[in-house]
Amino acid sequence: MFIMKKSNSISQLARLRSPKFRQTGSNCTLSFWYYNYGESVGAAEMQLLVDGLKQPTVLWRTYYGEGNQWLKAVIQLGRLSYPFQLSLDKISLGFYDGVSAIDDITFENCALPPPALSCEGPNRFWCRGTKACIDSLLVCDLVDNCGDGSDEDNCNPDLQCNFENGLCNWEQDIEDDFDWIRIQGPTPTLNTGPLKDHTTGTARGHYLYLESSEPRQYEDKAVLLSPVFNPSGNRNCIFRFHYHMFGKQVYKLSVFQRTLSNTKGWLLWYKFGNQGNRWFRQTLYIGSSKPFQILVKGTVGDGFTGDIGLDDMSFLGCTLYNGNLPTISTTTSGTSVPVTLPMNNCTEKEFVCRASGHCIQMIQKCDFRPDCSDSSDESACVMEVCNFEDKNKCGWYQPALEQMSGNYSIHTTNIFKWELGRGANLYPGQEKHCPLIDHTTCTEEGWYLFSDSSNGEFGHTADIATPVISLTGPRCKIVFWNHMNGSTIGSLEVLCKTGNRTSKLWTQSGSQGPQWNRAEVFLGIRSSFQVVFRAKRGVSYMGDVAVDDIAFEGCSPLLIPGRPCTAEEFTCANKFCIPKDNLCDFVNDCADNSDENPTI
């Protein structure tokens, strides 16, 4: 079918109407091939005309000539429960010069599910009227999958939201950069965002969208908060939602789960980049031993064609919690959270062992040797070996962040800082400058520590430090693995901080290749100090610094034995015993340098 020129009137309109259809199933799509070529060929659009609605819904449009070629258009119709027609309109303003044509119009998956004689199994639902047998995951998801509405009967409205009457019991986060917007029809910017909602499939329906135009800036975030739910046990709470990510500069949509109200939680799912002009369904299985909340976060890209849509959000197998999530207060690492101490006679300069009340010298706290029977003197210290699995930072902390408010996990979103990461959470292309696998497990599921250079600016630094280490032995060293790959890698430094004085022990700059590299830093005998890893950001986001498997080796201080030194040992001037093989080896093994005395 093609358009022939009939007149030179200022405004010309050619219209092609479809037959009238009674309804469609929830997975219905329409596709066709079109040709629109010429210097003044004009625009064309496909409209949906629904009985009972005066306003047509634009499903597809093209504004200008697209070359001497046939192109395919795919339109998501979805579930339409009312009779409708399609109208293809060709508009020419002024002089028409070109060829417009359409061919191979196809409807796919548009029928309702067929009736079934039986519908057995724990994961199946038998529709009451149509007798169709559907997946139980489709029940109470705000979509009439049966065709008779029976899969949407007797649903808890507190567990569903189609945004037709507001946000339901979802809330806008007050700690993010801007808010999600409720809208009907297309978003204000061309070539991005939905043209219609998912619930009704028309311009009459409402949905939420993230506006990426000015004054929004790159990586601005809008967060939507769910109500709080009861503990869900073994992943039997199911979250369903529909999202739309269309536009050349669409950035990221993420879903987080949290059990503390002043944290951003942990990542459950994300999608990155342009996914095409259609709504997608996503299902997440959620398990929690504590009351929890879901956060849906949209992130702005680097341009105005980056609108993101949300619609038809529902929960299955979940129950609402009658209360609020607890908060966690951040305390400077290395200071003790108040505890009830056992009866003791210790002075202020001594440490009280938590189980026995036994007193030890304060310098014996955090020295890599448990001097208390319950090891409580080493409990608030850096761990001897840390692989960051189970998202455990092993006592390492970021002093700059902990000086901020208790809500720092949201306030510091765009700050250059150390974070836990893993390959499974990377977005496409990020593996070029961030590790795809960790060093411990050599898998995408393994965790590591990295400084995210998509935040901050050139020259910014991020420090992560140990709590104060009281004392180390003469052969103490720190061994770690680092990953520095990318075109704009900055640097990584290992520092020793004693009071207000900081000294550099090791440094490395620039890209070191796409692999984990081993590093070793000698510490020796030191007292009342901290080890600091400092990452310095390069000129762009293409350069994340990562570390993994940090180990303190041979760091326990020397112990004076309750016996004379053996024939194989050397007696230091301070009564320590060391192996004679350690004499005159340029290492102060005795801690008083008597093993290196030239008169030995």
TrEMBL record:
Disulfide linkage: 140-155, 366-381, 565-577, 572-590
SUPFAM superfamilies: Concanavalin A-like lectins/glucanases (SSF49899), LDL receptor-like module (SSF57424)
Keyword Transmembrane helix: no
CC terms in the record's Gene Ontology section: membrane
Keywords: Disulfide bond, Repeat
InterPro entries recorded: ConA-like_dom_sf (IPR013320), LDL_receptor-like_sf (IPR036055), LDLR_class-A_CS (IPR023415), LDrepeatLR_classA_rpt (IPR002172), MAM_dom (IPR000998), MAM_domain-containing (IPR051560)
Limits of the MAM domain: 1-112, 159-320, 384-557
Entry protein name: MALR1 protein
